[in-house]
Amino acid sequence: MFQDLGALYGALDKAHPAVVLFDYDGNIGELEELLQFLKGTKSAVMAMNSSPVYSDGILLLKEGARALLNTYASANNINQAVKAVVGGNIWLYPEFIQMMIRQNSMMAAQRQEALDPLSARERELAEMVALGMSNKEIAQTADITEQTVKTHLKTVYEKLGVASRLELAIMVNNARR
């Protein structure tokens, strides 16, 4: 156990442990610094906090943390986490996983809602744009004129607040996910 990062860094320079368990209660900055220090090494960081915050967890995962645990995790959970991390996996506490699922569901619903202003026909044409079809191909497939395709797409752009075919395609493809 180390009381400051300097002593920890000195020890890590001498020994290269497979796993470093770091309790970052009150100081996420120190953990971010440690993650940067260990980037490119074979040491994996398991982050612990007595009051874990979802947004901190997301940040730490992006920075390279391999496990997120509550400081009060049982010995069994800590052992599971160590085994997972040593095996090259990520281990997350159950409440974090539940929050990720909720966030993903909310984001999916929001992406779907982005296309709600469109009529069924406008959505159909927007889907064809997202598939990379030209106006001519859309006109042939939808059995309408190219001018009608252009008119519909102008309305779609206005309703969705996009300025280009590419933006529309990205929005539609994101809504599909």
Automatic annotation (TrEMBL):
Residues 111-176 form the HTH luxR-type domain. Transmembrane segments: none annotated. The keyword Transcription regulation applies. This is Response regulator transcription factor. Keywords: DNA-binding, Transcription, Transcription regulation. InterPro entries: Sig_transdc_resp-reg_C-effctor (IPR016032), Tscrpt_reg_LuxR_C (IPR000792), WH-like_DNA-bd_sf (IPR036388).
